[in-house]
Amino acid sequence: MDTTLVLHGLEIVAFICVSLTLIMQLWSRNNEQAKINKRLPGGSFGLPLLGETLKYMASMKTSMPTFMAEHRQKYGEMFKSKLMGAFCIVTTKSDTIKWVLAHEGKQFVTGYPKSFRKVLGEYTALSLHGEQWKSTRRFLVNSLRVELLKERIPMIEQTVLENLNSWAIKGCVSIREETKTLAFNVVAQYLLGSRLKSGPVNDSLRNDFYVLTEGLFALPINFPGTNFRNALEARARILKTLEEDIVSKPRPAGDEDQYVDYMDYMRKENLPGTTDELLREKTRCHILGLLFAGHETAASAMLFAVKYIMDNPRVWNELRAEHDNIQVSKFEGGNLTWDDYKNMRFSQSVITETLRLANPVALLWREATEDVQLNGSLIPKGWKTVCAIREAHHDPEFFDHPHEFNPWRHQHEVLNPAKKPPLLAFGGGPRYCPGAELARAELCIFLHHLVTKFDLKACETEIVSFFPVPMFSNGLQVRVQERDPATKCSQKIMAY
């Protein structure tokens, strides 16, 4: 009996000890969390589980998104939130964003949402960090070097002409569809060579990329019919098409093919014992990411450039005069050259202003690898840091009348580089986009042939939105007419 009482007493004591231990741990954790919360910037985590994701999405699907501006006005240039399932600190100021991007690999690593990584793959360049990223970047920089780009100007121009030559026949065209086709054809041939020219395989890939884009920043709900599930299925079809209809085919002698070249490079770079299947998965993710990033940015910029120059006759006229002068200097003959591209100075300003107003990437995601003190606030280790590019590009401190399309504002940079306004369209720091020059060259060549060949007129009213990427409600329907020869003559006289 005494033994039973003793054992019962010991059980009670053990229960009390365990309970006290758990209470102390919870108290300590809550106390620590309270200390962290005091050091966080202001803000709101929104709804349980969903956070402020739906509110952000709803705002971005309008013509004038206000989510970031309202939060910035209420809480300051940095604020806490919960977006895409992640606790995060959002920063809206260009100087702070540049600092975060410059500390890639130090206090921060890339940290895109789960849906993004699942759709593009864990080994896509946008998800890699550390030595894996450094190795991949070396290959990217070499593949997109200026010397190689100079050699491929004729290929880019030929692809642009093949696309534009059909516009006048169609009459009213969807600029979104045409620019998506054009941009995809350019990057596909740049990466995979002549085996991926226009045709059913190309069309199938491009259409699947439309679906994939819709699911990149969707809520990661893997149920039939959701954007996320559709994107995963599109990814599987893209990879199957790449391997069965492209990679398995022999490439012509001298034809470039970064799929094979990258796999050979990774085989040399990877640790001993890396399996061929893992190499293939890394290569698939790499090419998938490049095809997505390489055409989505350029297509979106072309789309909005057309809209902005149509809406601004003064811009259209100056742009046309610049390109007419280039044609006159060539005596109406010969293809465009690298020097021609470098002389398209006003075109560069048009592109820069387009990317400022309608950058395809509204947010850049990083993850803190340690507790970071920034502007008097704490970014806890493991939290996301969301760089609001769009908000920085609309900052009235740097841009007078920030919502107006004014390419001339960027021409002052040449005269006074010290006052160069912030442009984060291609990222920054160690992850600055290595394909930025390719995108700009492609856009300049597109603008050259567009304004020298055609007159454009909008077919119907369009409503703009910005999620998941900038777009128009009807794809920007435009009536295309071949240019009046009389205007060419007047421009020639002006040129001389």
UniProtKB/TrEMBL annotation:
Gene3D superfamilies found in the cross-reference section: Cytochrome P450
Domain of life: Eukaryota
Keyword Lipid biosynthesis on entry: yes
Cell compartment(s), UniProt: Membrane
One GO BP: steroid biosynthetic process
Metal-binding found in the keyword field: yes
UniProt cross-references to InterPro entries, sorted A to Z: Cyt_P450, Cyt_P450_CS, Cyt_P450_E_grp-I, Cyt_P450_sf
GO cellular component labels: membrane
Cofactor requirement: heme
Alphabetical keyword list: Heme, Iron, Lipid biosynthesis, Lipid metabolism, Membrane, Metal-binding, Monooxygenase, Oxidoreductase, Steroid biosynthesis, Transmembrane, Transmembrane helix
Residues annotated as transmembrane: 6-27
Membrane topology: Single-pass membrane protein
GO terms for MF: heme binding; iron ion binding; monooxygenase activity; oxidoreductase activity, acting on paired donors, with incorporation or reduction of molecular oxygen
Binding site for heme: C433
Stated family: Belongs to the cytochrome P450 family.
Protein name per UniProt: Cytochrome P450
Record organism: Physcomitrium patens
Gene name linked to the record: LOC112286276
